[in-house]
Amino acid sequence: MISVMLLAAMLQGAPAADEQQFRQNFRDGSVKQCVASTKGAPPKLDVAAVCGCVTDRQMEGKTVEQLQQQPDADTVKPIIAQCLREHAPQ
After folding, report:
1. Buried b vs exposed e over 47-71: b needs ≥16 C-beta within 10 Å?
2. How confident is the model at residue 6, as a pLDDT?
3. What is the pLDDT averaged over residues 69-90?
4. How far apart, in whole angstroms, are the C-alpha atoms of residue 14 and residue 8?
5. What confidence tens digit (pLDDT) does each residue in 2-60 have?
6. Among 19, 28, 40, 83, who pairs with 53 as Cys (CB 3.0-4.6 Å)?
7. pLDDT the model gives residue 4
8. DSSP string, the chain
């Protein structure tokens, strides 16, 4: 989380390309962290797809500054539930 805040501080006032790079790095790190934290998930569940779905929905419409803040659990729970439904094992 410290690296996210440091990168965000460097990007304040930076060109759009830098913000785009920050967003990509943020997404990659968030998905990676999510996947690593899902031990015990059902074997047929595509954890990377669920984590990508959750991350993308959390990032929608947010600024770099908003992405630096810890997400509210009450906001994240319905996103997780929806992504689990969308990516349920067949």
Report:
1. beebbbbbbebbeeeeebeebbeee
2. 47
3. 92
4. 10
5. 444 444 555 455 567 788 999 999 999 999 999 999 888 888 999 999 999 999 999 99
6. 83
7. 47
8. -HHHHHHHHHHTT--HHHHHHHHHHHHHHHHHHHHHT-TT--TTS-HHHHHHHHHHHHHTT--HHHHHSPPPHHHHHHHHHHHHHHT---
Quote the pLDDT of residue 90. 76
* pLDDT at residue 15 in the model: 61
Q: Which two tokens stand for residue 28?
A: 């990659």
Q: Using N-to-C axis directions, what is the helix angle for 47-59 and 73-86, rounded to 10°?
A: 130
- Residue carrying structure tokens 């810890």: 70
Q: Are 9 and 51 in contact (CB under 8 A)?
A: no
CB 63 within 8 A of CB 26: no
